[in-house]
TrEMBL record:
Protein name: OCP N-terminal domain-containing protein
GO CC terms of this entry: phycobilisome
Coiled-coil spans in chain: none
GO biological process entries: light absorption
Family classification: Belongs to the orange carotenoid-binding protein family.
InterPro entries tied to this protein: Orange_carotenoid-bd_N, Orange_carotenoid-bd_N_sf
Lineage: Bacteria, Bacillati, Cyanobacteriota, Cyanophyceae, Oscillatoriophycideae
Domain (OCP N-terminal): residue spans on this chain: 21-170
Superkingdom of origin organism: Bacteria
Sorted UniProt keywords: Antenna complex, Chromophore, Membrane, Phycobilisome, Thylakoid
Taxonomic source organism: Lyngbya aestuarii BL J
Pfam families, A to Z: Carot_N
UniProt-recorded Gene Ontology molecular function terms: chloride ion binding
Length: 170
């Protein structure tokens, strides 16, 4: 299956997730069960599709200036190093980049991934390649998230990005 916003919406619109509170926990668990590359692809897709609504959901509290240095460091890396840095953050590998990410607040982490997705769209940060073959589990995770109410979607994203990276203070 080819990874596109159109195919995901068309092929998986029939998947239904109830609006009960357990849905958030189940969808979050399904997302975190994906491998790191699948998680990155799902994040990219969600931010591409929902990005305009995600950013306001992380209001002024998303002090992106706290992440600017880290974002710029990633942006200036060669593409394969950018991908490695994102993988390390998602996999909670203990690296300087992952530790720098780990100390960010949750809303700042949401904004961090939004900024990376924006740079991916413009081509200044390595993105998901066109035609990326998405796994069945990834497609199901995307569909499940899309079926949640907006506040639940944001909660799932917060839960997932909050648990990425290494918090050296913990």
């Amino acid at each position: 299956m080819t990874f596109t916003t159109e195919s995901s919406t068309a092929n998986f619109a029939k998947v239904f997730v109830s609006s009960n509170p357990n849905a958030v926990a189940r969808v979050t668990s399904d997302f975190t069960a994906l491998n790191v590359d699948e998680q990155l692809a799902v994040l990219w897709f969600l931010y591409t599709k929902m990005g305009r609504t995600i950013t306001p959901a992380a209001p002024g509290a998303a002090r992106l200036q706290f992440a600017e240095g880290l974002l710029n460091e990633i942006k200036q890396m060669p593409p394969q190093d950018q991908l490695k840095a994102m993988r390390d953050i998602a996999a909670c590998v203990n690296t300087p980049i992952s530790r720098a990410y780990g100390v960010l607040g949750t809303n700042t982490k949401l904004a961090f991934w939004y900024q990376l997705a924006e740079w991916m769209k413009e081509g200044s940060v390595i993105g998901v390649p066109a035609g990326y073959p998405v796994s069945r589990a990834s497609s199901q995770a995307i569909a499940a998230i899309e079926q949640l109410e907006f506040s639940q979607q944001i909660t799932v994203l917060r839960n997932t990005v909050a648990n990425m990276g290494i918090d050296p203070l913990a």
